[in-house]
Amino acid sequence: MVLLDRISRLVKANLNDMISKAEDPDQILEQTIIDMHEDLMKLRQAVALAMASQKRSQQQYTQYQSEVNDWLSRAQLALQKGEENLAREALQRKKSSEEQANIVKVALDGQTAQVDTLKRNLIQLESKISEAKTKKNMLKARAQVVKANEQLQGMLDGINVTGGMAAFERMEEKVLQMEARSQAAGELTGADLESQFKALEAGSGVDDELEALKANMLGGSAQPQGQLPAGEQPTSTPQTPAQKTEVDREFEELRQQLNKI
């Protein structure tokens, strides 16, 4: 028994869940308005039938009231003519018409109350339908907004924001590295040019000094052998011809080496 109850609750829960998921607000609201219009048509028909019955009862009541008046007039006429039996019969018919009129009057009063109630219900239903139509449009608009938000949320859920930002960060780091390499290469190029110009400037001084040395050395070789430049005094004994030949040879080798430079 407990198992059957659990199965029954489970089936009901699943059915309710399926129904809840299958309910489309637009369709449900539209169908509700249609049902209310159908109820309105039925209520109008009921009001029409009740008013028709009321009208017939009113006609019957008027007819019986007319008969009551007619039989009263006839009874009076019979008494004037001395026809008491006939007057009595007229009064009897008058009483019967009054009884019928009273019966119809009770029915007529009930029908009148019923018609009034039906008319009030009809007015209320028409007002509710008008209000429901306004709410339907508002609810449909809100439902569309909710659906749009759900679709947008689904799209956002499908986007890997973290991965995307990580990719942007990686690309930013890569661009920074490229910029750093470019800047370093520019600095290295500038430093290389600077070092080359400094080398040229330093080399010019060496070359000038070398040229001066060569000029001094060449100038010294043009003087007569055995003499020193002006202002200098011999500090040693005069060289022999063999020593002078050796010096000239060494000087010539030095000058050739300098020319190669």
TrEMBL record:
<feature type="region of interest" description="Disordered">
    <location>
        <begin position="215"/>
        <end position="261"/>
    </location>
</feature>
<protein>
    <recommendedName>
        <fullName>PspA/IM30 family protein</fullName>
    </recommendedName>
</protein>
<feature type="compositionally biased region" description="Basic and acidic residues">
    <location>
        <begin position="245"/>
        <end position="255"/>
    </location>
</feature>
<dbReference type="InterPro" id="IPR007157">
    <property type="entry name" value="PspA_VIPP1"/>
</dbReference>
<feature type="compositionally biased region" description="Polar residues">
    <location>
        <begin position="233"/>
        <end position="243"/>
    </location>
</feature>
<dbReference type="Pfam" id="PF04012">
    <property type="entry name" value="PspA_IM30"/>
</dbReference>
<keyword id="KW-0175">Coiled coil</keyword>
<comment type="similarity">
    <text>Belongs to the PspA/Vipp/IM30 family.</text>
</comment>
<feature type="coiled-coil region">
    <location>
        <begin position="108"/>
        <end position="149"/>
    </location>
</feature>
